[in-house]
Amino acid sequence: MIALTLLLSAGTTASAQQQFTRTINVDGLQREYLICLPVNFSESENMPVMMWHHGGGGTASGGLFEADFRSLANSERFIAVYAQAYPDVLEDCTCWGYEEAGGYTNGNYEIDLAYTSAMIDDLVATYNADRNRIYAGGYSMGASYVWDLACAKSDEIAAIAPVAASCYPWTFDACDSAAPIGICHILGTNDFYAPYDGGWVPSAQAQYNYWVAKNGSQTPPETVSIGGGVTRYTWSAGENCEAGYQHFRRQNGGHDVPGFATSAIWAFVSQHTLDGIVPGSDLEGDCADDSIPGDINGDDRVNGIDLAQVLAQWGTNNADADLDNDGNVGGQDLTVLLAYWTG
Fold first, then answer.
1. Alpha-carbon torsion 311, 315, 318, 321, what sign?
2. What is the dihedral angle through the alpha carbons of 100, 62, 71, 20, rounded to the nearest 10 degrees?
3. Tens digits of per-residue pLDDT, 117-148?
4. Is domain 3-287 classified as CATH 3.40.50.10860?
5. Which fold has domain 291-343?
6. 179-193, 222-236, 284-298: lowest mean pLDDT where?
């Protein structure tokens, strides 16, 4: 049974942004999440979802002050969701679950993974959210959990955006079975929780080296200084078109969420789906289809060699020579070939 509890609403009409707490039963536990539906929300839009996970000891409503996606949700047409951690068995802390390789845990790891899946199911069933475009971001301990999602839920999450946290070492060492996933990592060089050059967690470089290789992303990265001591590194998708990787290095940055985070995160994650990079997006990189119509033999030219192949397959349904995809190699295919002739 699902109950709705009104927390805060931007208005009473369907045209206004709606914000409220939703309660779901997950394996006998009553779990909550804060949902923000954009203005003029309609289920027919089949919107993507941006989930945010608050820092350790925090709340879903407090997550709004860490990363407020509400105005972006209106303009970019997505559902913003603020997840709520469950009190753990160690300190009754609303801390996201973790489970070390040796078995040490705060008791929340498995129940939080189940909660994430249940939240996605509820959003799809109730609001017709696009299951193919679910994104997860978070701050501090919430970001540590988001790294776990990349390894444990890459079949449900299309891209993640951890801020001010690095992957737990036990997760980092056991992530090989995960599928490629888009990652936008924002980290300051003076962050006490996640040492930039590594320590109790992997370094920023170790993480991007691992995921760029796993994703098959394009190297070297595009490097851009965006001001304020922040450098953005972007590895576009490789030939497999599966996922990109982006890293923001905040020189002297501390343990906080920078002001540029929400817009940067959405710009990156929204280019991903569970099926790979969105066609035509900036991250297409090496996977963009830049072939020339009529170039049958793939030599980046349309010339007599291609003409000979069209004539050799004349009157057949040969897929390579059927340039207009009408099921027959004929005059229309010759027209396409001549239109793109390079000689």
1. positive
2. 100
3. 999 999 999 999 999 999 999 999 999 999 99
4. no
5. Type 1 dockerin domain (1.10.1330)
6. 284-298
- Residues 6 or more apart whose CB falls under 8 angstroms from that of 3 comprise 23
Cα distances from 36 to residues 9, 100, 332, 341, in angstroms, run 9, 34, 51, 53
Beta-bridge partners for 3: 23
d(C-alpha 158, C-alpha 125), whole Å: 18
Amino acid at the residue 271:
Q
Does the pLDDT at position 25 exceed 70? Answer: yes
Considering only CA atoms, which of 89, 86, 92, 68 is closest in space to residue 19?
68
Residue 169: per-residue pLDDT: 97
Angle ∠(13,16,20) on CA atoms, nearest 5? 90
**Tokens 């923001």 correspond to what residue?**
248
Instruction: Tell me the average pLDDT across 259-274.
Output: 98
Segment 197-218 shows an average pLDDT of 97
CATH 1.10.1330.10 residue spans of the chain:
291-343
Q: How many CB atoms lie within 10 A of CB 62?
A: 16
Structure tokens given for 215: 């994703």
- CA–CA separation, 319 vs 325, rounded Å? 7
Contact (Cβ atoms closer than 8 angstroms) between residue 79 and residue 129: yes
- Given this model, what pLDDT does residue 8 score? 37
Query: What is the per-residue pLDDT for 332?
Result: 84
Condensed to tens digits (0 to 9), the pLDDT of residues 75-87 reads: 999 999 999 999 9
Tokens matching residue 253: 């940055």
What SS3 class is residue 250? strand
Which segments of the chain belong to CATH 3.40.50.1820? 3-287
